[in-house]
Structure formats: C-alpha cells, structure tokens
Amino acid sequence: MKILDIEKAVGHVLAHDMTKIVPGEFKGVKFKKGHIIKEEDIDKFKDMGKYNVYVLELDENTLHEDDASKYIAKNTMGKNISINEPSEGKITFSSTVEGLLKIDVERLKKVNSVDNVIVATLHNNTIVKKEQAVAATRIIPLTIEKNALEKMSEYCDKKIISVKEFKNKKVGIVVTGTEVFEGRIKDKFGPILENKIKHYGGQYMETIYAPDSKEKISEAIMKHIDSGCEIVLTSGGMSVDPDDVTPSSIKEVAKKVVTYGAPVLPGAMVMVGYRDNVSILGIPGCGMYHSTTVFDLVYPRMLADDEITREEISGLGHGGLCMKCETCMYPICPLGK
C-alpha cells in the first residue's frame, strides 16, 4: 500500500473501506475496499475530508477482483448466457432464454479446486426462465495472481455453464388401456399430460386411444411419428402385469431404448426410447396421481434436445425421491418450483 493525494489516486484500487458520516442522518461505508477510484469520486472524497488515501499498487502479474471475475466468466460461460458488470467483485450469470441449465459438474469441481476462485451455480438440468440468475463468480481476496487464473483456465477448454433453449416441439399422446378405449372408464391421464405440455412447453397435437394390444399401441405411436410429432408420450400399461404391453410396444417402435426403469420415486417404471430424432416416453400410472414424477425430470430434457443416457438415468437415484413440496427439504428444486 501507499498514500496518494486523491487527485493522483484516480485509477488506483482503494486499500480500505471509507466511512461517510452525516451527523444525525447517516453513518456507513461510502467507498468499499477494492473500489477503483474515478475522476467523479474526487469531490465526494473531499466532502468526506479525505484528501489522501491508501491505495494498492498492482503489478503486471496481479489482477484486481473485478478483472479476475471478468476473466473467470469469459472462460466458463457458454451458450445462451449473459453477465453483468462486476459489483463488489462479483459477476452474475443469467440465462438469455427459457430452457435447461447445463453444468459440466466435473469441470466445475476442478475450477473450484483452484485456490481463491469460486464459481457457484444452480443444479445441473434445472429449468430456468429468461433473465434468471443461474451462476455467480468472484475471487476470495481483493487481488489474485494471474498464474492462478491461468491454471483455472486449463479446465475450461469446454464452456462449463450454458443453457439449452426449449423448442416448441410437436407432441402426441397415446393413452393405453382397453377399459379406456372401450369407454368403460373416463380418461383422466390424457388431460393431465396435456396440462403438463402447456406447463413446460411443446405443441400438443392429438391424443390417440389404444387397447392393451402391442400391435395397436405400436400403430398409435407410429401414427404420431408419421404425422410429424417429435415427442410421443404413452400413458399407463408400464408394469409387469400381463395386460401391460406398452413397454414391448415402445421397444417395437424405438430404434434405441435407453432404459426401462429408473431410480426415481414416483415413476420407477418409466421407459425412454428414441426413433431417429423422435423421443418416446413411457409414463407409468403414477403420473395420473402425483403432481411431480419422473416425467418432470425427463420431458424438459426432450424439449431441449438434450439426449438422455443410461448413465444419467442411473445418477437420478441421488435426489430421486420426490416428496410433496410442502415437506420437501431439497434446497433448490431441480424442476424450478
């Protein structure tokens, strides 16, 4: 640190907090430690009786916290992300679209393993709105050596924070069950799925009813695909009951089945498959009774063209027990609720 006349301190970094006192009206910090002194600050300092200040001298190998945050943001932010100007050394990342937040969790861990660097984010695969804050970064001290940030950048050859925009995909529904097909009972599943589509997005096309017949259900799925649907939702008939043939129907149509079953409750008997660019989601009966199920984890990813892998399905077990919102202890809901 060194002492400078306030006129000569412009462009330098204030080395300590500066308190302003107005008797009977105000007492508090007017300029915080780390503030870069500007021309327009000179009169304000003089009004406070401060004609000389302690400043930090930064050499070419040292960065101020504001510049460090900009460096970190530049090296970590990906597609559909915007940042604000630093505020007290912190930069906030916001989504420029409505979509699915994607975090490279392993690279994020490596970035945060660098001393004095922090990047905090929402959970991977969180549903986010346009202009919603999704992450923030800063350094712990007021300054940092450049070589520390260069070490951090080694982990950022791929951007680790991005958002996949939701697409207005065409969505068809296949409601299975002979009792519904024959009109013995009223369909309650189809309307629920229609409301889910309205909630998350997508262009609802049509609901087709099919009896408990592998051939008829397969035909219904193919009818949706042939008509241009990009996502096909099938409801019910997903258990091991002999009349539940929806899984075998999906296998008949799909060219790739990612999973039949997931470590998620409610929703363990889910099936995820693909036929070329069409996503097929088999939803178990719990989707008719519970407001939040495995559907809410999988469907948004289909809207964002975020292909689901078997490994990711296995990972859903951590946090895969969904409780009612009023009793849930999850700190940040991955569904954005």
Please explain how this structure is put together:
26% of the residues lie in helices and 28% in strands. It is an alpha+beta fold. It folds into 3 domains: 2-56, Molybdopterin biosynthesis moea protein, domain 2 (Alpha-Beta Complex); 62-164, Pyrimidine nucleoside phosphorylase-like, C-terminal domain (Aldehyde Oxidoreductase, domain 3); 170-315, MoaB/Mog-like domain (Molybdenum Cofactor Biosythetic Enzyme, Chain A, 3-Layer(aba) Sandwich). The strands form 6 sheets. The protein has a 6-stranded mixed beta sheet with strand order 16-15-17-20-19-18, with helices on both faces. A 4-stranded antiparallel beta sheet has the order 7-8-12-10. Strand 7 (81-83) and strand 8 (91-95) form a beta hairpin. The longest helix is centred in the middle third of the chain and has 13 residues, at 214-226. It starts with a strand and ends in a 22-residue tail after the last helix.
Write a concise keyword list for the protein shown above.
Molybdopterin biosynthesis moea protein, domain 2, six-stranded mixed sheet, Molybdenum Cofactor Biosythetic Enzyme, Chain A, 337 residues, 3 domains, Aldehyde Oxidoreductase, domain 3, 10 helices, elongated
